[in-house]
Amino acid sequence: MKLLSKLTLFITLSKLLIVVLFVLLLPSLVGYVSFQYSNYYLRQQKQKVLSEIKQNGIDYYLQGDSAYASYTMLKEEYISILPAENEMVRDTIETSKRVVGGDTLTYRILTHELTGTHKNYILEIGKTTSTIGEYNNLLQRFTLYVLIGLIALSIVVDLIYTNILIRPLTKIVKTKLLNRKFPFKEPLSPIKTSITDFQILDRSLIDLMEKIHEAFDKEREFTSNASHELMTPISILQSNVENLMMEEDISDEMQDKISAMMRTLNRLKKIVNSLLYISRIENDQFAKSDTVNVRELVTEMMEELSYRLETKSIQFSNDTSKNSYLKLVNRDLIFQLIYNLINNAIRYNKENGSIYISDKHLPDNTYQLFIKDTGIGIKEEELATIFNRFKKSGKEKGEGFGLGLSIVKSITAIHGFTIEVSSEYGKGTVFTITVPAYLPV
Questions:
Q1: Domain assignments of the chain as residue spans, ordered by start
Q2: pTM, 2 dp
Q3: Which of 55-69, 109-123, 399-413 has the lowest mean pLDDT?
């Protein structure tokens, strides 16, 4: 999963968690706020009453009576002034039941002791709990809607900011890793960013790729120079051995030894030629301007290898499309690429085995070529190294020196193709060559 996707998921889940926790706590919070507001309202009413008593006296309410009581039409609020008992009454706010107008209702009641001229009175101001809670549901819904809106807005802002924040990292990955083809030809330029961590990462990748490219150039130069230097002494040795073989007074035993020496020199010369071939490929010394019909090319190889196919009684099937073309390629290299794979398929196949060549055009315009055989297969632990130079997967003595598949890998890389291998030991192998959609087919 990409970093942006993980951050998006984390931001969304964290906001949702906040919403869930808030929804669970919302009834309690709203109830608490409502009661606190009711207490505040009752205290305000008390201050009004005390202000009027201070201005007009307590008889303003009593009007000659010993007590005073008043309530609203729906009995939602009431106020009463009653003579105080001998015990001292503290100012309190509590929830209790009262009988008002013949109905017993639950009120939130503020109690306060008044000091009169001759006696003390108890002031009670009440508000029904039902009126306190009647707006709770509305308040909860309103609060929840506001919260959801704010959460949604914060998610959008967070995602936009996160996207802007990691945009340099995305550019670094695309320009330095995903869209780079080895060997690197274009110079790498730093990504513009104000984030120090990204600057360090970008600079480190540039330095690393420059070192890799430098090491590759040195290896390529050494391979090319060493191969050229080896060709001269090998040719001289080969010429001398051939002259020895033409001598008439050489014994049969010596003749066999000289023949073995010649075979060794031929194998060594073949290795050097292969190294030179790889060096030329990696140095991009082959022009890529040809258009190749895949089916015709495979048919040509089948005719060229017919003798070897008949020798091992191998059935060869060419099921490639007639309209499959590879454009802007080097025909000789493509021929060598497919030839090496078919040659290996014959070499490591079984008697009365089969080789099946097919292709496929994917919906995204990617083209794939499959070379399947029923040979001895490749062990799973060897699959990762079969394209390495001088790494041999076959077990038969004297067959292959690991450069055939190395040449295949170099040819696919220089054309921008990819090659994959799947194999089941003892049953066969499938090589898949993939031509990306951005290359002409």
A1: 3-136, 196-282, 290-435
A2: 0.52
A3: 399-413
